[in-house]
TrEMBL record:
Protein name in the entry: Membrane protein
InterPro entries: ECF_S_folate_fam, ECF_trnsprt_substrate-spec
Annotated TM spans: 12-29, 41-69, 75-94, 103-129, 141-161
GO MF terms, alphabetically ordered: transmembrane transporter activity
Keyword terms: Membrane, Transmembrane, Transmembrane helix
Entry-linked Gene3D superfamilies: 1.10.1760.20
Organism: Haloplasma contractile SSD-17B
Source taxon at top rank: Bacteria
Amino acid sequence: MGRNHDYTFKLVLAAIMGSIAVILKFVSLETALFRVTFFDIPVIFTGIFLGPFFGGAVGFIADIGLMLFKGYPPSLMTLSSVLWGVIPGMMFYFKKKDKKPNIILFIFTIIITSVICFSINTYQLYLWFGEGSYAQLPIRLIVMIIKIPLQISIIYTLFYVTRVIHTNIYSN
């Protein structure tokens, strides 16, 4: 596979994942206290499959897209969106290239990323709402615990399907 084909593949896949992430940011269960969204799945997938730069870019695009259309101000939550792609990208970037990623690495990566991003978002909510933000911590923790197995199974499946497709297309 030539260098141009590989870069084009990465750009196209990142653009597709970015648009899916923006759409998933809008298609969310949102109340006055919290929001349940699955935008992080394409962001994590991009970080794992394409690397931390593309993963972070997709997270940034998803958050900026929501800010532009809903009028939210820039915040630490933008950093959190970027980290959804950068942390998994770094974890998989530094693993040995000859070893196939296993489910344990996926689980560890998603749990670590979830805890870091949850902490950043909690701090931002504290800055906005003060001590009143602590009232929503239990429901946010429950949502995070429910989302982790869904994220792991979807991203693990997406990773292997895309890897097979990529190998079959560019092996000729």
